[in-house]
Amino acid sequence: MRNQDLNLYDLVNPDMEAALKKIEGFAEILEKLNDDDPKIIGDPEDVHDDIIEIVTYITEAVKLNSNNAYKFLKAKGLDRIVAQNLKVDDHKLKAHVLILLKLLFDVAPTTTAAVIPITVVDRLLDIFEVDNLALKAHSLDVLYLWLPDQPKVQARVMKIKGLVPFYEQVAKLDMSGIKTLLELFNKILKEHLRVRDDTQKPVIDPEKMKYYIRTGLLEHMATPNVCNGLLNIFIKTWTYSTDENNVIAIVFDTLKIMKKFCIK
C-alpha cells in the first residue's frame, strides 16, 4: 500500500489537493511503466489499484459531505482525474471514475455541468465500443444526468455519433440499459420539440438555440432510416417487457412523439 501518507479515514474534511496529486503521481508511474522505463519497476495493475483506492476515498467523502464535491470541482478534479482516467484501458478503474462522475452530477449538477470538459463526452461514447455491459450502464447513467438541457453537448454527440449508433446499441445492451437509453432519448426529443416551438423561440437563449438547430435532431427524426431504426427497437423491446421493467410504457411514450415524424 502506497497511500499511507494520505489520511484515508478523514472523509468529512479530506485534503482534496493531496489526493489529486497522489493520483497524478501514480499516473506518471503508469506512463513510465507503459514506456518501459528501466528506472521504474512495478505492476501496472497494482498502480491501478492504488488509484482506485483514492478515487473510492474521494467518492465516499463526497457521499458523506456534499461540500467535498465542490472541493473536488474547485481543484479541477474533472480535468485532472476524471478526463485523464477515462482514457485508460483498465475497466475496473474506469468504472470507479464513472461512479464518481455520476455522484458529482447527483450532488452538484449545475456546477459539474458548468466545469466539466466537453471532451469527456467523447470518452463516454467510446465506452459503447467496448463489450462491457457494466461500463455501458455507468456511461448511460452519466449521459442521462448530463445531456438534458445541454444543447452544446448534445450537438457534439450528434456530430460524433449521429442517431444510427443510438438504435444499433439496443442489440448490445441489457433491458435496463435499453430502458435508460429510451428514457434519455424521449427526454431530449421532448426538449427539442419544446424549444423549437415558435412560441418558445423568443425566450430561449440565442446561444443555446444555435446548438439546438445545429444538432438537427428534429430534422433527423423525419428520415426513413431513423424511423425504421426506432421501430426495430420497439420490436426487440416488446418481447422483453415485464411488469418489473415496464419498458412498454416508455416505448408507447416514444411512439406518441414519433407519430408526427414517421407516420405520414
TrEMBL record:
Superkingdom to which the source organism belongs? Eukaryota
SUPFAM superfamilies for this protein: ARM repeat
Query: Which protein is depicted?
Result: Uncharacterized protein
Alphabetized InterPro entries for the sequence: ARM-type_fold
